[in-house]
Design goal:
Elements (H helix, E strand, L loop, with lengths): L6 H19 L18 E7 L2 H8 L5 E9 L8 H4 L7 E8 L6 H12 L7 E2 L2 E2 L5 E5 L2 H16 L10 E4 L3 E3 L7 H4 L4 H17 L7
Parallel strand pairs: 6-7
Antiparallel strand pairs: 1-3, 1-6, 2-3, 2-8, 4-5
């Protein structure tokens, strides 16, 4: 984030990412793996990373059934869960979003469909668009066996269907903790919709969510 790139470079990088996403959404399949009954009642949480957490949060907080979406860090220790340290790419953390959702309104599988088709390019290793480094990696931090099963099966399904031109490199790893980011990062997209990085890289993702999945949007 806060990339030291020209506006033209940002436009090119953003356009390339959105082209891949637009192509994949045109024939994007639903997950075929059913969720067990243990994950269909009560309030659930999911932690996903897919590049800069501004856009990831901005998309998921607009999805019906999502009660809360918090930008933060996952994959490293509490002592290094600070933006300046995470930005070095040496902490093990990934910029992530903790999603609190009602599985009677939106399933974990549906969240993953939005994640893979709108939020992230899962074929990019340790980067997303103009952002590079392990802190921008694509990762699913599963909280239980159901989430692991659904995530791994869906990735296998997408790879087998060759939805993307390259193999998915998204990590599926156990959840070990989530640490909210600093206050100024929370709801950054809503507070600064015309900020160049947001306008170029993230607002198109929100638009894609609304166009591709209008029935799943709050507004």
């Amino acid at each position: 984030m806060f990339p030291k790139l020209s506006l033209r470079a940002l436009l090119i990088a953003g356009a390339a990412t959105l082209l891949i996403q637009a192509q994949s959404r045109s024939s994007f399949p639903d997950p075929v793996v059913p969720v067990s009954t243990s994950s269909t009642q009560g309030i659930e949480k999911a932690v996903l990373s897919g590049g800069c957490f501004w856009g990831v949060q901005g998309v998921f907080e607009r999805v019906k059934g999502v009660k809360n979406a918090v930008a933060g860090y996952a994959g490293g220790s509490k002592s290094t869960a600070q933006y300046e340290m995470v930005s070095t790419g040496t902490t093990g953390h990934a910029e992530s979003v903790e999603i609190t959702y009602d599985p009677t309104q939106v399933t974990f599988g549906q969240l993953l469909k939005i994640y893979f088709s709108v939020v992230t390019d899962p074929t990019e290793l340790n980067r997303q668009g103009p952002d590079t480094g392990t802190q921008y990696r694509s990762a699913i931090f599963y909280m239980n066996d159901d989430q692991k099963r659904v995530a791994e099966a869906y990735i296998s399904q997408l790879n087998a269907a060759q939805v993307f031109s390259k193999k998915i490199v998204t990590q599926v790893v156990p959840y070990k903790g989530f640490y909210p980011a600093e206050d100024y990062h929370q709801h950054f997209l809503d507070k600064h919709p015309t900020y160049p990085y947001i306008a170029i890289n993230d607002m198109p993702k929100v638009a894609a969510l609304k166009k591709s999945y209008p029935q799943m949007c709050k507004r």
